[in-house]
Write a structure and sequence with these properties.
- By secondary structure, the protein is mostly helical.
- 76% of the residues lie in helices and 0% in strands.
- The chain is built from 14 helices and no strands.
- The termini are far apart.
- 48% of the residues are buried.
Length: 320
């Protein structure tokens, strides 16, 4: 029996919204580098970009929550939201901003391609989900590829056979984002997808808004840097989540989440016109290899059915 056309249209719309969300997130890397500049030609400080983008998204979120008359989160929801603030509002963008002053956006795209796999590993730990041995082998393989890529890049740039300190920042950014995603996902079913990112940004507003004003640059800043800042505040921190969460809801999380595999390649391609970075075959090759480990790893990361089999289990996970 064929499915109704409305269901097919709904899934198709969800898939396209997922692609839009991933595309918006992918451009975050080159736009962040535009905003911060490089060590040789610095623009906005990483702290200003991190706190300012969250403040901008927080103001937009306040308008949205008031316009939709959204209820306040329940007491047990504040802890997961607070963890999402630390991971997605502070940790990820700050570490990414500092790293992108040193390495190219294409380089960062290869390291951050591990994000879906690390998120699954964090879910296994935080939510006590059990994954098969194959998943952990894929996680190790993906990590080894990133290490080899980082060592190769350092050697090519004359830094010897060692890590760039920026690579450690990128790994930290991936871990921070993964924790933020998992804790935000705990309250998404009960709070609502779009409202999660809005409440996360609003919770941080008492800190991010005064800090943004205090850190406001006194020197002249390039127009392109301001454009990058506005992009990461409006699209990376806010609108991108609307498209992404809505796409997951309409098209199904399992199907739509596969569009994340496009993100490193979209980041690399966007860096060519925005930053003038060359199309590097080695970078593309490593990105493709990492994505392959993510594809295989996600297939082997099925959670234990008992974890979310009942509403009680979901409620316990949310309160933890």
């Amino acid at each position: 029996m064929s499915r109704p056309r409305t269901a097919i249209r709904k899934e198709t719309l969800g898939m396209w919204l997922g692609v839009i969300g991933v595309a918006l997130f992918a451009i975050t890397l080159p736009m962040t580098r535009l905003a911060t500049g490089t060590q040789a030609a610095p623009q906005l400080s990483p702290w200003f970009v991190t706190l300012g983008r969250a403040a901008l998204a927080g103001l937009l979120s306040t308008v949205f929550l008031l316009a939709t008359r959204s209820p306040r989160p329940a007491p047990h929801q504040w802890k997961p939201l607070g963890m999402a603030v630390l991971g997605n509002v502070i940790g990820y963008p700050l570490l990414l901003a500092y790293a992108l002053r040193v390495v190219s956006a294409s380089h960062a795209a290869v390291v951050t391609a591990l994000l879906p796999l690390v998120t699954a590993a964090v879910a296994a730990w935080v939510l006590h989900q059990r994954a098969r041995l194959g998943f952990w082998l894929c996680a190790i393989a993906g990590s080894v590829l990133v290490v080899l890529f980082s060592l190769l890049r350092a050697s090519q740039q004359g830094h010897g056979f060692g890590f760039e300190w920026a690579d450690l920042l990128l790994v930290g950014a991936v871990v921070a984002a993964s924790f933020g995603y998992i804790y935000g996902a705990q309250v998404t079913p009960s709070l609502g997808a779009e409202r999660v990112i809005c409440w996360v940004c609003v919770m941080a507003l008492p800190v991010t808004l005064p800090a943004t004003l205090a850190l406001w640059p006194q020197e002249a800043i390039a127009v392109t840097a301001w454009a990058g800042f506005v992009y990461v505040g409006v699209f990376s921190m806010w609108i991108g989540f609307f498209a992404w969460y809505r796409g997951l809801a309409l098209g199904g999380a399992l199907r739509v989440s596969q569009t994340q595999l496009l993100q490193p390649f979209l980041s690399i391609l966007a860096s060519i016109p925005l930053l003038g970075e060359p199309l590097d075959v080695v970078t593309l090759g490593f990105a493709a290899a990492v994505v392959c480990t993510v594809v295989l790893g996600k297939r082997l990361s099925q959670p234990q059915p008992s974890l979310a089999a009942t509403p009680r289990a979901a409620a316990r996970a949310e309160r933890s």
